[in-house]
Amino acid sequence: MSWFFAAAVLLPVWVWSPTLLDDARLDGALLSLLTLFAFLKFRPASIPGTKAFLLFLCLGLAPLFFTPLELPTLAIWGGLVDRAPLLSAFVLLGLGVQQSNALNQAWPWIFGGIFAAAGYGLLQLFGLDPLHWRPMEASAPTAPLPGTNHAAEVLAPTLLAAIAFGWPRSPRIRAAVLSPVAFFLGSLHVLAPWISIPIGALFLRPWKNSKVIFPLLLVLASMAIGNFWAKPKAEVQPQEETAPSHDSFEIRWLTDLSVAQHAFTHPLGIGLGQYEKSHPHWQNPDILRVASHNYSDPATPRAKDPHNEVLLVWVESGWLGLAFLCLCLFQLLRRPERSTWPLVPLVALGFHACVRSPFSDNATALALGALWLATSEKQQATTTPKTRNDWFSSLLPSAFALLAAVAAIPQLIGEVSLSRAIAEGEVSQTKLTAEEKHLRRSLRWRPWHAVSWDLEASRLSRTGGKPNEVRTALRQAIQQDPADLFALTSLLKLEMLSGSPLLAHDILLQAESFAAQHPSIREARTLWLEEMGANQNHEATLILMENQAKARAHFLMGHAFLALAAARRDDYQSCKEELIQTGFYAGENRPLFERMARKPEPDELSVRELLLRTLADSEPYLGPGPEKD
Fold first, then answer.
1. Structural contact between residues 415 and 21, judged by C-beta atoms closer than 8 angstroms
2. Cross-strand pairs, 433
3. d(CA 384, CA 47)
4. Most exposed residue of 94, 107, 369, 472, measured as fewest CB within 10 angstroms of its CB?
């Protein structure tokens, strides 16, 4: 059984491909399937906290049954699939409680496998990549761990766990193992380990146990050396002036504030797995701008979580859901047979859960947390007769394991197929055309995945697909993710070129409701104004001889649209010319337009306010104003 516990942690680490689009989703699926396999052989008894966990789960699922009908069922199922690893982790915890001897035997193998992954990261740090796992030269040297934050929230608690467990036994070998891992951790330039390790170390009581003082000092010193040595090599390329970098504390503050406000106004929660698709509807609009490294890119990804596990549980399952999950953890922590040493890494991992989401976005950290929570003294853990005879609690782990495994199958096939579609695709001028066969298989198994529909639309447009086929793929992406800026802007342009301008305007309004100041959305509004201005003038020319009054109204709107579009592009000369033409058809408001045209540089905000004041009911067509400094 010890092999299973080692595999539950290490398989998600070492099953790695540089073409994986979302390593965390694949890792979660692997953990769920592996847990089901072990569960069928070693049926775990019920453990403390099972009923509290069930209540948390029910409260997290309840909001999904009251979701507006516009939200597709597939999107709901997709959210549940993303949270399924939580179920498998609870089953894994039960197996660890039941098989305590095997779990204690597995820890050296777990430590060795995780530290070996850090060792491969060290090779990449020094320019070596024998397995060719680094996706790009500019990528962080963390493979097979997905990224710097993922690596930090696994390595920092594991370093503390190895010290608390006393592995390796020889102090010299322990120093030889821990120091390079800590050096690598320091080279990642992640702030969280510098806080989580000292906090966790307090529970080692170094003032009472002299054996842990030297390993702790060695880890901190090695981290400092790694941070200093790797700093010149880890510099990020300077960004464009239009996309300044922002302090991470500003991003976290805006995110935490938005999530907390939404949780207060929605005490029953939004439903498990719904954060990624829900938060663009209510988040602070500044978050996307300040959090993006390339804000001008319409494919800029949004966060899957609020970088705070507590806030994520709170907003998805509500006040009661969070309370029952806390009750579950409390009941598990107060087990009389629970070992004391895992409290050290659990405290460190708990800090990481307050600054990121290791349990919903890192299957390795999730498995480690479950096993540390399950670790008991070396003698076999026992269950009370009352717990053993509680048939309802005994059946719950079976339901959890089966549900997690069912959810894992489409996730696993979808992610692997998408990875192969990317690996076998064609790259030209830094643009990817995914391979058709595997991309279609990914969509069959995981049709709620908006990114796959984006790739399908892109593939169709580059391989001569019909406009209706491209349009269908983009609409599927928007249906699954209404805030998909890439799909929204692409469909908008398609409708403007070969579809309906009115439908294009509806799509534009939807895009502006999520990110009105996004450069791609502002450019889309400018293009729409230019297109509609030209159409209005053309329509006025056709009816000029038949109905001059109606033609005059068309000319007025047409030149007004073109004036605002020119102001948005800072084309002052064209803006002045269009303002003069607008004034010619504006009747009693003509002096206002002529006065604006006499300005050396008529700005967008002034032109927009003039149009709102003089043209009735024009606000929906003018779009949001520019961002004020």
1. yes
2. 426
3. 10
4. 472
